[in-house]
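Re: that chain you flagged

S.,

Sorry for the slow reply, it's been a week of failed gels. I finally had a moment to sit down with the sequence you sent. For the record, here it is as I used it:
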Amino acid sequence: MSVLPMLVSTMPHGSCFLWNPWLTSLHALADGGIAVAYFSIPVLLYIYREHAATAARPLLLLFAAFILSCGVGHVLSAWNIWHANYWIEGSWKWVTLSISSYTVWQLRSTIPQLLATHKDLEITRELLERDPLTGVANRRGLESAYERVKVYYGSQPLNHALMLLDLDGFKQVNDTYGHHVGDMLLQKVAAALCDRTRSLDTVARLGGDEFAVLLAGCSGAGAKLIADEIRQVIATLQLPELPADFQVTVSIGISEFRADADLEPSYVQADGALYQAKGNGKNQVSLALTP
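Prediction finished late last night. Pasting the structure tokens below so you have them in one place:
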């Protein structure tokens, strides 16, 4: 038998674990490990205390005391394997009971408020990243989607595509038929883009009549096929407020990128391709050359 199991199995009064060194080690190491984990939580709360709102700090302090008390309880459990000071361990359990009961009482009124606050934050973030007119993402939402692509696909050798779209002659719609008609047209375009893309893609309105589509795991060539289909669908859009012979067209520029690239270079390339599509006569799709 090695020295460590012999030391671990040396217990007074023959009172614990039937003198089995492996059973003793199992309990001692488990209690010790749990205690270390418990003690680490208050340390982390202290290190990052500046990130907590002032109103939440008393509750965090109470929670830290509860966790710390639990850690001390596990230390005493390990200590009693050898020393059998059960009065001390039992007394400390009453300390933990008092702290935990008071913590539960405080959380009774605080948890609903915290959950409501978290829900409000999610709603606020959703509003910040959503275009109120069309319901698709806005520029901030596009940037968040781009970051998600970098996180999810960063280690994979996949190409992705960024598509920029600009309606041709949209100013004429607003000037001739009114902004309310222009708004309805933008809503129809957004719906058409969502219908022609996947759930993992992101459709965004960047402002005015400019839209963007982020195609995850899609090559430039594949994006060009999708863009041409979108171009044809938009050309068939009709509104009762517009003349029957009025045709809405769109120019589209596409850039291809890897997940480790930044958004700005991809956006500049797609914007250059869009400018080229406009210059070539509009109602066209242009794919930027990969540098």
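What I noticed first: Residues 177 and 242 are 8 Å apart (CA to CA).

Talk soon,
D.
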